[in-house]
From TrEMBL:
Protein name: Cytosine permease
Membrane topology designation: Multi-pass membrane protein
Main location: membrane
Source organism of the structure: Streptomyces tubbatahanensis
InterPro entries in UniProt: Pur-cyt_permease, Pur-cyt_permease_Fcy2/21/22
Subcellular location: Membrane
Family (UniProt): Belongs to the purine-cytosine permease (2.A.39) family.
Domain of life: Bacteria
Gene3D superfamilies, A to Z: Hydantoin permease
Length: 501
């Protein structure tokens, strides 16, 4: 097992050996973690009962999947990650918007996963072995999880794929056992002492659709390309990749989230999830719960950290994926400590997913419209201009930015932020919309309308035929190894950098 050598460079055709079923392994295996399970608790904490919570999550997940799953087809054609691929629409410098969004999304979800998993681990260890329920215990467990996660992320794609395959089977079995463990306490009623967060049922239910359901697929708007860039379009059809991505997203999100809703009402979790989950677990289930909290967290956060490393690698071409991954791992750990010791978990978590959904949706809409316009034909070499610290190319636009796409994204994001309703911030448009959070729909519609209007008549890029398999391979060789790009040494001579096992 060697450390992955590729960053955001073009993956050579000879190395694009993954299959569509691998993305299902990633999406199911990595999501069967308490950091995803906790989203099933969110609607319950809003004051909704089991059936209302479940229906909100199912609807939100299906809507989000329809929007997000087609993004997997972009990297299938470009052989690089989605943030870099977005340079076709935003420009080779403008694609830094996608890298920043991906970095923030992954950073938040990594911190959330480590926080929830760490809390469940401390609680389980306290009941099993008498571990003190102290700040030092939490700090130690968070640190151990962060180190294990960072190591997996640094080793990269192949190790994470193997881990996801194991977790897809093992974690599913643990969740099934968990249903039996909490079944005697199950009820369809909302937790004691809760009331509708937004005052009435319908606004609260719609909030759950966005915050708990839609936010799941939206977390993957920049991640899907991390998996499909290792698939070859000459061996796997776009239809098959799309359908398996849809299946992986729906199953990978709804299985853990519905488990979270089931257990949240069973343990009467109102303001906290991990604590009641552990305290009311049958003693015989504590070991499986400890395994779920630890292994599941490493698998889920590992993929998020891996994606963050790629995004930071794209933002700072002079760094390496390995160094970038270690750096974002440290930052995520700091957020974990803040989430546990400083912030109100429910409010911070809800505000985070709603605000990023409002600004992430416009980016996804623009990338998808651009993909449809060019019919999946991309110039893989031209997308790598910034990574090679060069200029020019088919996607250079104006100084590396497509001002029209950037403006459309800014306008759509602005409308979304004005229409979002969170526990810590309510946009001024919410009152004019009947008190409903329609930020997702408005931001998507406004972005599509503006982007279509300002780019009408603009020629699709590239107009040429898509590169053949041999050309993609050559592009990968010319763009260089993601871990061994050349940097200027002290004497001005190029100094190769690399990472070895």
């Amino acid at each position: 097992m060697q450390i992955e050598q590729h960053g955001v460079d073009v993956i050579p055709e000879a190395e694009r050996t993954s299959r569509p079923r691998d993305i299902v392994s990633f999406l199911i295996g990595s999501n069967l973690a308490l950091g995803v399970v906790v989203f099933g608790w969110l609607p319950v904490s809003f004051g909704l009962g089991f059936w209302a919570s479940a229906s909100a999550m199912v609807l939100g997940t299906l809507i989000g999947t329809l929007l997000v799953a087609p993004l997997a087809l972009v990297s299938l054609r470009t052989a690089t990650n989605l943030s870099t691929s977005s340079g076709a629409q935003f420009g080779v410098r403008g694609r830094l918007l996608g890298s920043a969004l991906g970095l923030l999304l992954s950073l938040g979800y990594t911190a959330l996963t480590l926080w929830v998993g760490g809390d469940a681990m401390v609680g389980s260890l306290a009941r099993l072995f008498g571990l003190p329920d102290s700040a030092a215990s939490y700090a130690l467990v968070y640190a151990v999880l962060a180190v294990c996660t960072a190591v997996c992320a640094v080793y990269g794609y192949r190790l994470l794929l193997r881990l996801s395959r194991v977790l897809a089977i093992g974690m599913t079995a643990l969740l099934v056992v968990g249903l039996a463990a909490y079944a005697p306490q199950f009820t369809t009623q909302a937790p004691t002492g809760t009331s509708y967060l937004l005052g009435d049922f319908l606004p609260t239910w719609l909030l759950a659709v966005v915050a708990a359901g839609l936010s799941g697929p939206m977390a993957f708007i920049t991640l899907l390309g991390d998996y499909t860039r290792y698939m070859s379009p000459t061996r796997h059809s776009a239809r098959r990749v799309y359908l398996t991505t849809c299946g992986g997203l729906v199953a990978g999100l709804l299985i853990p989230q519905l488990f979270g809703t089931f257990t949240a009402v069973a343990v009467d979790a109102a303001r906290d999830y991990a604590g009641p989950l552990v305290q009311q677990a049958p003693f015989w289930f504590l070991v499986p719960l400890l395994l779920a909290a630890s292994l599941g967290s490493v698998g889920n956060a590992g993929l998020m950290l891996y994606s963050m490393g790629l995004d930071l690698d794209a933002i700072v071409p002079r760094t390496t994926r390995t160094r970038a991954t270690y750096g974002v791992a440290a930052l995520a750990t700091v957020l974990v400590y803040l989430g546990h010791f400083v912030w109100d978990a429910q409010d911070a978590m809800t505000a985070f997913v709603l605000l990023l959904t409002a600004v992430g949706t416009p980016w996804a809409v623009i990338v998808l419209i651009g993909h449809a316009r060019c019919r999946g034909n991309y110039d893989a070499e031209a997308l790598q201009v910034l990574n090679r610290r060069s200029v020019g190319g088919r996607y250079w636009y104006t100084a590396g930015w497509n001002a029209r796409a950037t403006a459309a994204w800014a306008i759509g994001s602005g409308v979304g932020l004005l229409a979002v309703d969170t526990p810590v911030y309510t946009g001024p448009l919410v009152g004019h919309l009947g008190g409903f959070d329609l930020s997702f729909l408005l931001s998507a519609a406004v972005t599509a309308a503006v982007f279509t209007a300002v780019t009408t008549g603009e020629p699709a890029r590239p107009a040429a035929e898509p590169p053949a398999a041999g050309e993609i391979a050559a592009a990968g060789e010319r763009s260089g190894n993601g871990e061994a790009r050349e940097s200027e040494g002290a004497g001005g001579a190029p100094e190769a950098r690399g990472a070895t096992a």
